[in-house]
Amino acid sequence: MAIWEDLQRLSEEIDEEATRPVSKSEPERRGEKIVMSRKDGPIPKEEREIATEAFVKDSFKAVLKLHEEVVAAKEKTLEVLQEENALLKEALIEIQELYRQEREALKRLEIQLEKKEEELTLVKRKYRLMWEKAIENYDKEGSEK
């Protein structure tokens, strides 16, 4: 409703401007149109109505064209955002898969490390027992001589 009221108000303003006399020496710019004075006097109502109708039609055409451009730009933006969203979703899934694989690898490495630590402990114990046995044998050989 507000747009229609604005258009009616603009139409009334155009009618008022058309009935107002314009100086003959210099044309006055009003919006994009030049209002020239006429030798016959004010512009007749039929011409004003034609000019007003043409102005309104041109205005509607311009508004509709701008609206179509905005809608097209919006659709293009939505397409780009959807493509970007799909790419980000794929990237997130891949990162999650890599993270899962790294966690599994870390668990395997931790298990291997525990096994190697147990093995090292056993080797140390074996080495210690071996040297204790060697020292005992040396002491026994030394005491026998």
C-alpha end-to-end distance: 124 Å
Secondary-structure-based class equals mainly alpha
* Overall morphology: rod-shaped
Uncertain segments are 25-37
Q: How many strands in all?
A: 2
N-to-C SSE series? HEEH
Describe the main β-sheet briefly: 2 strands, antiparallel
Q: Order of strands across the widest beta sheet?
A: 1-2
State the helicity in percent bands.
over 70%
- Tally the helices: 2
Could you explain the architecture of this structure?
It is rod-shaped and about 150 Å long. Helices cover 81% and strands 4% of the residues. The protein has a two-stranded antiparallel sheet. The chain has a domain at 44-144. It has two helices and two strands, in the order αββα. The chain has 145 residues and is mainly α.
Give a brief description.
The protein has 145 residues and is mainly α. It has 2 helices and 2 strands. The protein has a domain at 44-144.
Topology overview:
Blueprint lengths: L1 H18 L8 E3 L2 E3 L9 H100 L1
Antiparallel strand pairs: 1-2
Helix pairs in contact: 1-2
Keywords:
single chain, 145 residues, 4% strand
